[in-house]
Amino acid sequence: MSVKDAVVKRFREIMAQRNMRPNELANLSGVTPSTVYSMLDERRKELSINVIKKLCDGLDMTLGEFFSAKIFDELEQEIK
To answer: Is the C-alpha dihedral spanning 44, 39, 12, 5 positive or negative?
Structure first.
């Protein structure tokens, strides 16, 4: 699993726990819905840490809380 896939999976998990749709996350975070849908798009390979931070702010959580999930500890090393 890539880092991008893990980030998307984590956001989807949090949205499901909070019974939240992507549009609602966008509204809470002060970003456009297209930004959230673009981030969730499997074809997009890169993510901006600035967008991740805004989405975390909208979810009222720190980057530390977001990235403390086990899914990030299980990622393979990128440099081989």
So the answer is: positive
Whole-structure pTM value: 0.88
Residue ranges per structural domain of the chain: 3-73
Question: Burial, 39: exposed, middle or buried (Cβ in 10 Å; 0-12, 13-18, 19+)?
Answer: buried
Q: What is the distance between the alpha carbons of residues 24 and 68, in angstroms, rounded to a whole number?
A: 23
Q: Which CATH class is domain 3-73?
A: mainly alpha
DSSP 16-57: HHTT--HHHHHHHHTS-HHHHHHHH-TT-----HHHHHHHHH
Enter the DSSP assignment of 28.
H
pLDDT tens, 16-69?
999 999 999 999 999 999 999 999 988 888 889 999 999 999 999 999 999 999
Token output for 19? 């019974």
